[in-house]
């Protein structure tokens, strides 16, 4: 789903109405963006229940912080920023689950190549994975990804470059290891 560089007229109008106290306008925004915020949080938490809880907390925080939002700017990057901050707060408070309770998430049906996202999640840092997700899956421009991650645009470019390079190396290694036509090399 591409994201426009500018907010849609409906988003701007709904955001203004919500800032003035219209819960119906805010409800429309929640309905429109709930799935995307949830999907982003699922990539960060890897647990459906945690992502659901954090999605609710994100929209509650958005309602309470609407006076900080500028309706002239796109709403989705602001929501992703709030969601990321909520996930960081939750991570700081949480304790790791026992391994037997730590189930991987079900792949999202609309997610192309879900295995690739799983490899990326295992191989990359949280920031690198978030940058990839926001830029390639959500199709956000680098400037917005930088704002969400709290980094400079140049730093995000470097992060993306290194993430792509790391994934390519990891995938090449996996292909070579699983290719029966490659001779088996024993370490020295």
H/E element order: HHHHHHHH
In helices, the fraction of residues equals 55-70%
Extract low-pLDDT stretches: 1-6, 97-111, 179-188
Our count of domains comes out at 2
Give me the oligomer status: single chain
What is the residue-averaged pLDDT? 81
Class derived from helix and strand content = mainly alpha
CATH level 1 name of the largest domain: Mainly Alpha
Termini separation comes to: 49 Å
**CATH fold call of the largest domain:** Rna Polymerase Sigma Factor, Chain: A
CATH architecture of the largest domain: Orthogonal Bundle
Number of helices: 8
The CATH superfamily of the largest domain is known as RNA polymerase sigma factor, region 2, helix turn helix motif
Shape annotation: globular
- Give the total of beta strands: 0
Biggest beta sheet attributes? none
Rg for CA atoms: 19 Å
Question: What percentage of the residues does DSSP assign to strands (E)?
Answer: under 5%
Descriptive account of the structure:
- It is built from 8 helices and no strands.
- It has 188 residues and is an all-alpha fold.
- It has 2 domains: 1-94, Orthogonal Bundle (Rna Polymerase Sigma Factor, Chain: A), CATH 1.10.1740.10; 113-176, Arc Repressor Mutant, subunit A, CATH 1.10.10.10.
- Helix 2 packs across helix 4 (75-93), helix 4 (75-93) runs parallel beside helix 7 and helix 7 packs across helix 8 (153-178).
- The radius of gyration is 19 Å and the shape is globular.
- Residues 1-6, 97-111 and 179-188 have low confidence and may be disordered.
């Amino acid at each position: 789903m591409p994201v426009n560089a500018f907010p849609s007229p409906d988003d701007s109008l709904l955001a203004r109405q919500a800032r003035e106290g219209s819960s119906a306008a805010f409800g429309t925004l929640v309905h429109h963006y709930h799935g995307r915020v949830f999907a982003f949080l699922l990539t960060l938490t890897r647990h459906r229940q945690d992502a659901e809880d954090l999605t609710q907390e994100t929209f509650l925080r958005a309602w309470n912080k609407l006076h900080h939002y500028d309706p002239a700017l796109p709403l989705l990057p602001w929501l992703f920023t709030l969601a990321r901050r909520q996930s960081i707060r939750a991570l700081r408070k949480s304790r790791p689950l026992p391994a037997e309770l730590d189930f991987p998430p079900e792949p999202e049906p609309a997610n192309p190549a879900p295995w690739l996202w799983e490899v990326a999640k295992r191989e990359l840092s949280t920031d690198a994975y978030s940058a990839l997700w926001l830029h390639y899956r959500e199709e956000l421009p680098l400037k917005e990804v930088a704002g969400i991650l709290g980094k400079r645009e140049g730093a995000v470019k470097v992060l993306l470059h290194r993430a792509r390079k790391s994934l390519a190396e990891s995938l090449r290694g996996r292909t070579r290891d699983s290719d029966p036509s490659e001779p088996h090399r024993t370490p020295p």
